[in-house]
From TrEMBL:
UniProt record similarity statement: Belongs to the ABC transporter superfamily.
Organism the protein comes from: Ruania alba
Gene3D superfamilies given in the database record: P-loop containing nucleotide triphosphate hydrolases
Keywords on record: ATP-binding, Nucleotide-binding, Transport
Residue span, ABC transporter domain: 1-253
Descriptive protein name: Peptide/nickel transport system ATP-binding protein
Length: 333
């Protein structure tokens, strides 16, 4: 709720703060248990920073991270100290983008996957190997692999190892930041399907961060669209893809490749003018106005609030209702 992360830019010998990068600016979003929320936007829009704040890898500048425990109590993780956070660190885990650099090449799979168990002292040392073997099986790898090193494995297999490591502590929420983007297209679907299977088996909840709207359509129940640190639109996936309410969402959807290759169904691509706005100098009024083909005078002066436009659908645009934006099926040439 209203979560912000600002990074100060310092200059000179006294380290005076001369500007702020508003990487995440008063973001509201909700992730329901057992569901997947897709967090989308171009690179630099604040998706990863938001994910890292939720993991408390970054300390938020302001706002709340409300976490509902198994006993029903809601705890704000934002102000907790490292010591107070310890029990929650097991419940919220991350899978990283790059399965090549995120695994220590000098550690065996048994050490890599067993490390969170060891660090958190959740089971006796004598049981760790058995547990790792079980985890390997769960992610579709052979338990005999536990004495091998990451170099022996392909990108897809390494991402399976990353998943096993993330799941070792039985987390409730997994933050997946571009988790399959570095993999070959042919391997991606396998890992996405594995993530779905694991979700169904263990009632896992995912925050699925990606710039790829095709993958998000496949994975997510709900979508949150970010632009320079702001949430500009949210809604149930199928509904949002069919009927976007924000011009930025429309443009992102227009860039999704059409699976039907016939020329008649080629997607009509909307090319945005200019560059992503500078997060140290976000435009007045609507942050998207410098790139919006529909911008009017009001967009320069008034910040559009994130408002509920229909049940379950929120948008931050003054003129949504009047724009007649096209959805994924209508964006054909
Ligand atoms: Fe475009 Fe104005 Fe809507 Fe912003 S508020 S998205 S500038 S029409
Ligand atoms: Mg990122």
């Amino acid at each position: 709720r209203q979560l912000s992360k600002y990074f100060p830019i310092k200059k000179g010998m006294w380290g005076r703060t001369v500007a702020q990068v508003k990487a995440v600016d008063r973001v509201d979003l909700q992730v329901k248990q057992g569901q997947t929320v897709g967090l989308v936007g171009e690179s630099g829009c604040g998706k990863s920073t938001l994910g890292r704040c939720i993991l408390r890898a970054y300390e938020p500048t302001s706002g709340e991270i409300r976490y509902r425990r198994d006993d029903g109590e809601v705890v704000d993780l934002a102000p907790l100290t490292e010591r107070q956070l310890k029990p929650y660190r097991q419940s919220i885990r991350m899978i990283f983008q790059d399965p090549f650099s995120s695994l220590n090449p000098r550690m065996t799979l048994a050490d890599i996957i067993g490390e969170p168990l060891r660090v958190n002292g959740v089971i006796p040392e004598s049981e760790i190997e058995d547990r790792v073997a079980t985890l390997l099986r769960r992610v579709g790898l052979r338990p005999e692999y536990l004495r091998r090193y990451p170099n022996a494995f392909s990108g897809g297999e390494r991402q399976r190892v990353g998943l096993a490591r993330a799941l070792s502590l039985n987390p409730r929420l997994v933050v997946a930041d571009e988790a399959v983007s570095a993999l070959d297209v042919s391997v991606r679907a396998q890992i996405l399907n594995l993530m779905k299977d694991l979700q169904a088996d263990e009632d896992l909840t995912y925050l699925f961060i990606s710039h790829d709207l095709g993958m998000v359509e496949y994975m997510a129940d709900e979508v949150v669209v970010m632009y320079v640190g702001h949430v500009v639109e949210t809604g149930p996936t199928a509904d949002l893809y069919r009927r976007p309410n924000h011009p930025y969402t429309e443009a992102l959807l227009s860039a999704v490749p059409n699976p039907d290759p016939s020329a008649a169904r080629a997607r009509k691509r909307i090319v945005l003018q200019g560059e992503v706005a500078d997060p140290t100098n976000v435009p007045s009024g609507c942050p998207f106005r410098t790139r919006c083909a529909y911008a009017q005078e009001k967009c320069r002066t008034d910040v559009p609030p994130l408002r509920e436009i229909s049940p379950g659908r929120r948008v931050a645009c003054h003129f949504s209702e009047e724009l007649g934006l096209r959805g994924i099926e209508d964006l054909v040439a």
